[in-house]
What we know:
Blueprint (H helix, E strand, L loop, with lengths): L1 E5 L20 E5 L2 E7 L2 E14 L2 E11 L4 E12 L2 E11 L4 E13 L5 E12 L4 E12 L4 E11 L4 E5 L3 E4 L5 E4 L2 E5 L4 E12 L2 E11 L4 E5 L3 E3 L3 E4 L2 E7 L2 E15 L9 E13 L2 E16 L7 E15 L5 E7 L3 E7 L6
Amino acid sequence: MKKIFFGSICILVFAVLSQASQDLRPYRLINSDRLNIDLIEEEYLTRLAGNVHFFYGETEFFADRAEIFEIQKIVRMFGNVKVFDDSLSLCSDQAEYHRLTEEIFLTGNVFIREEHIDGSIRTFSADRGNYQRTEQKIFAHKNIDFYDERENISGQSNYLEYNLDTGYGLILQSPKISIGQEETLIISAEKIEHYRDYNRIAASFNVVTEYDEYRIESDFLLFFSEEEYAVFLGEPRLYSEMADASAESFYIYFDDRKMKSATLERDSEMFFSSEKGGEKINRVNSVMIDMFFEEGKISKLHAYQNVRSTYISSSTEKNSYKNYTESDELFAIINNDSEIESISFSGRVKGTYLFSDKPLNQ
């Protein structure tokens, strides 16, 4: 083994480091407090220590220490690693740069930040990550937190990949995202995908969506952030304090991230209470059901096409009754205390009433 030692370095040009292939980006050392070069089995190993700062092409690197393997074209960095590539910055405890594949592997306290033209940012933190510079792809592994300022989305998972060019993101292994701040839509599933160019989020398999007191379970979800509506497919089921519902598909519409209305399509069924905290013993079946919300609460209900309903009066009413009705349409008004204020029917109405001086149940 041959060994050469240099003291403090200000400007240094190495002939051995200039032998890289012409298709590789050029190396430029800016600073290192100490430098050693070892020749080990035909491999030149350059060790840099103390305030290490260098470039490969336009990509800038900082670290406490670095090891450059000239034949293998690999650079290993240790301590306070920072990498800057155009609008992207990457930080970690350790990193390894593979020059032949233009890939950077990050380990320990990984933090990646992307800055957009409009000044907004997108960030990722994880235990491990890697950046494929040529492909413009980011991968993150374990204990991931991510945030998109422009779309107001944050979340967690244990696997993430993101394409900086296309804006496609894939989130796996217990993914969970939150959309909005004051009025937050929380989505968890087995797989979540983000399509930047279409302003769309897709969640697949065992999807659970939570908003205020509402919980929706489905097999598939599409959320369109610009149009502000969500589509739930695969036997979706809604649960809330006042009502439980199911259908072949749900559509939920938002205004400024606040839930405004929902449509249940095909084989729609709803069980609801007639008073706050009451049992959900009232029932509506129809082809379609529309729900309207005010301040996060159901305020109106409209069922239509082949409506069949069962309504049992509130326990607070003096005379109890049970009503079964078939009609073309049903309208219900719910007050601010989540109590049924009125129910009306229209179109080929027929039904029966059962009256009692005792409370009735289903």
